[in-house]
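Milestone M4 deliverable, item 7.
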Amino acid sequence: MWNMKVFLNGKLTIKDVINGARHNAEIAIAPECLEKIKISRAVVENIVKSKKVVYGITTGFGKFADVSISENDCKQLQKNLILSHACGVGDPFPIEVVRAMMMLRINALSIGNSGISQETLDMLVTLYNKNIIPLVPGKGSLGASGDLAPLAHMVLPMFGVGEVYYKGKRMAAADALKAEGLEPIELTAKEGLALINGTQAMNSLAVLSVYDAENLIKTGDIVACMTIEALRGVTDAYDPRIHEIRNQRGQIYAAANLRKILSGSKRTTKQGELRVQDSYTLRCIPQVHGTVKDSFGYIKGIVSNEINAVTDNPLIFPDTAESFSGGNFHGQYLSMAMDYMAISMSTLAGISERRTERLVNPQLSNGLPAFLVKNGGLNSGFMIPQYVAAALVSENKVLSHPAGVDSITSSANQEDFVSMGMTAARKARQIIENVTNILAIELLTACQAIDFGKEELSPATAAVYKLVREKVEFIENDKYMAPEIEACAELIRAGKLTEVVEKITGELLL
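Output delivered:
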């Protein structure tokens, strides 16, 4: 599945991007794109020669759109654009984010509506394939006029400026180019603008978040079932007739997943056997997890469309040799999608933490020992893991404040409504990591609780229990627990829970 060459042609999938970002697949521009790239470039060159006034080609940028630039200054204009815009701050993005960013930008440019030269595009492909990865600070984009600062940092190494990661080291870009026998290039008319005027930085984060969220949403159903069994949950609440008359697709799917995962369990109960009904955190799992599934469908659709979008300005239409200024660089679609992602995944985490609280609280855990430890008092057991989950849930609430409604003006009020899409994407990415750890804590806690019972688990949850117990033993007495939480988190990140369950149940519904 992974590491085959990916051809860029405006038809990429999320899995293609993951293959490049995380599995170092090489890329190449699809042959069918080359002619359109060539024609589009010729349109730009004709604009320069004819001295036609076209934004960003023969004019300055932003508020300087009315300043004419001579043909002799076109190259300097493009270099100045990159140098002046490469002023991001903060910790650098992880390498996988920058690889995704490069891949997405090359893909957008390969569609042939940007006017970039084949030579310049080839240089970016070469850097990618030789794993010379630009150092890109994580903060500084307004998410309109594109991700200008991050993408400018991405471009710097093409002409030997800035820093890169190369062969496991952070070094000057000029040194990495020299090591590979590469010569810096010189940008020509429109090329600097074509390289940085797009949504690919925020979308790189969005693609990674969507891919990871898909696994977490399925994992949420699985971990919830572990807790249901640990608490001898009442499964009548998952009867398909209840969910069909609600008429909400995600809810129907969530309930179906619970029934499949719990099938064959001797640990669940029927209403009236031990109690009439469960608390909301068990009884309403389909209703809550269902909303997450439905919102995810919308988010994935937006992000998938943006992967193959042409998002710079101005745009070149080679069929008619025309150029138009527009606003495809505006990141509002991604901003709203990532805000929705933040809220949705925070919801998944919130109900998980409440289930963890029920497992450790003797007033709520249906007979389990306080904090799931035998010698309570001397031992604190699982008291503090629940604190950690609660802290992360609270952080998620802060991070879920929508970024997309918080516009601020820039460029002397020429750019007077911006998306803050990068902020939304960065927040969503942090929430994804928090959710991973919150689910890991519930998983670890549920396995501990399960060990206080004797009845058989379902085949699916038994497989998950076995997977966890291969990494983490039952905790008899207090010990250093951070490694245990991380071990469970790593199982979740790697998709191992989903993998073992789907071998038994078939594909879980999303």
